[in-house]
Amino acid sequence: MPHLDLNNRQLVFKIVYFGPGMSGKTTNLLFIHKKIFDKYKGDMVILDTEEERTLFFDFFPVSLGTVQGFSLKIHLYTIPGQVFYEASRRIILEGADGVVFVADSCIERFDDNVDMYRRMTTNLGSYGVDPTSFPIVLQYNKRDYDEVIPLGQLEAILELPDDLPVTESIATSGKGVMRTLQLISKEVIRNFQLDGSA
Questions:
Q1: According to the model, what pLDDT value does residue 6 have?
Q2: Strand, helix or coil at 85?
Q3: Structural domain of residue 78, as residue ranges?
Q4: Whole-prediction pTM value?
Q5: CA 60, CA 9: separation in Å to the nearest integer?
Q6: Which of 20, 79, 106, 126 could make an SS bond with 116 (beta carbons 3.0 to 4.6 A apart)?
Q7: Whole-angstrom distance, CA of residue 181 vs CA of residue 50
Q8: What is the pLDDT of residues 35-91, one digit of tens each?
Q9: CB-CB contact of 143 with 169 (8 Å)
Q10: Per-residue model confidence (pLDDT) at position 24
Q11: Measured at the alpha carbon of residue 178, what is the angle toward residues 68 and 48, in degrees to the nearest 5?
Q12: Residue 145 to residues 52, 149, 150, 167: CA-CA distances in angstroms?
């Protein structure tokens, strides 16, 4: 559920970029931050320790307008992808309104993607969130590899809904990055509007 800032008449949504280590989560956020005009974004905050790195920034998605008279603000987060940072990932995922799952398209990373996706749904479930009705976009990143996981394979093994939004990207060049952000932003707003009309 987004945070309602009555003083500034803002709806603040939290979107988390989730995925295995080195799949391109950080690269996605760095590209997005670079592309957004300064007046619409906050500073990039990098919580970097010897063991892990988390990024955060916020921005105003002017192209999405307002909802029920409130302007929109979006907080973007990445999680540390290495398997042993489960506690950090779970904390960052708390209160999320939507998730971009950044899958590494390298064929050798197939099992890592499946494992991390299942960890994500388990974490969401621990907060009482039903992953089947929660805003998620599956981004197949690193599509410039020679041998990539074919579209549909992760969805099949994970038994994901047919209407789950799926994108392809090459985050290092920015290809598909903003499209993914647009999709997840629209999904979280649509989900909020559906909840409000229920």
A1: 87
A2: helix
A3: 3-197
A4: 0.92
A5: 13
A6: 20
A7: 29
A8: 998 989 898 887 766 555 666 777 788 777 778 888 899 999 988 766 556 777 788
A9: yes
A10: 93
A11: 100
A12: 26, 10, 12, 16
3-state secondary structure of 181: helix
- Asked if residues 54 and 47 have their Cβ atoms less than 8 Å apart, the reply is yes
Q: Which element (helix H / strand E) includes 76? A: strand 70-78
Q: Which residues pair with 18 in a beta bridge?
A: 101
Q: State the CB neighbour count (10 A cutoff) for residue 162.
A: 5
Which conformational region is residue 22 in: left (phi greater than 0), alpha (psi within -120 to 50 degrees), or beta?
Answer: left
Largest Cα–Cα separation, the chain: 51
CATH of the domain at 46: 3.40.50.300
Number of domains in the chain: 1
Q: Taking the alpha carbons of 155, 103, 82, 120 in that order, is the dihedral positive or negative?
A: negative
- Residue from 85, 154, 149, 156 nearest 123 by CA: 85
State the pairing for strand pair 166-168/10-18.
unpaired
Q: Is the alpha carbon torsion for 12, 123, 47, 109 positive or negative?
A: negative
Angle at 111 between CA 77 and CA 167, to 5 degrees: 50
Distance CA 187, CA 193 (A): 10
Q: Which residue has the tokens 């209160």?
A: 95
